Amino acid sequence: MRIEAILSAEDLAAMIREVAPLTVHFGKDEQLELTDPSEVRLVADAGLRVVCKGRVQWRLLGIGVPITLNSLHVLIRPEIVQQSDGNALVFTIEIEHADLSGIPTMIDSKITDVVNKALAEKRVELVWNFTETLSHRFKMPNAVKPLEAIAFDVCGGRLKIGREALVLAIEFRSAVTHGLVDEKPTGG
Q1: Which of 4, 83, 115, 177 has its CA 20 to 30 A from that of 125?
Q2: Three-state SS across 87-130?
Q3: In angstroms, rounded to a whole number, what is the distance separating the alpha carbons of residues 113 and 116?
Q4: Whole domain around residue 40: which residue ranges?
Q5: Cβ distance 147 to 177 under 8 Å?
Q6: Per residue in 10-60, pLDDT tens?
Q7: Total number of domains in the chain
């Protein structure tokens, strides 16, 4: 059996606009601030592209240097990852393009590469362990014997990213636990 969650492009855009401004810390004093999302759209088989403004706070020669980003293209990549405690939906952040205020394009690209490397190394990601969240054992009431419990355990998931929606399909297996039947006569 499976359930599907469908997040439309409009739902995701509204969510991004609600969380902005957002500051992502990827080091002791390093951070990326995302502000003023002007465009949010799904990119098929890739993720959610957000065009926004922002700032990078970076330590250079022991001094915190703020860099203003006039335009920033960020790709939020979702993927299903098998972890030791179950399946998880993991979102990572990658800067596709940054237009830094007053800095030549060649240097823009170098700074973008350095920030992306730091984001990857620090594993700046949002993780939802949906196996842990959605697997459940329902204990049956005493009035329903000999059933003791019914369990639904997540056994996998699939993700499809289209231009109109992101679809998460989660697969379950069920199990029934039977208890002992009380054979004593009841009543008088």
Answers
A1: 4
A2: EEEEEEEEEEEEEECCCCHHHHHHHHHHHHHHHHHCCCEEEECH
A3: 5
A4: 9-130
A5: yes
A6: 999 999 999 999 998 887 788 889 999 999 999 999 999 999 999 888 776
A7: 1
Give me 51's structure tokens: 């065009």
CA 185 to chain centre: 55
Structural domain contains residue 63: yes
- Burial of residue 107 (CB within 10 Å: 0-12, 13-18, 19+) is exposed
The owner of tokens 């606009």 is 17
Structure tokens at 94: 């990658």
In a domain, 70, yes or no: yes
Query: 37: which DSSP letter?
Result: E
What are the helix (H) ranges across 135-175?
none
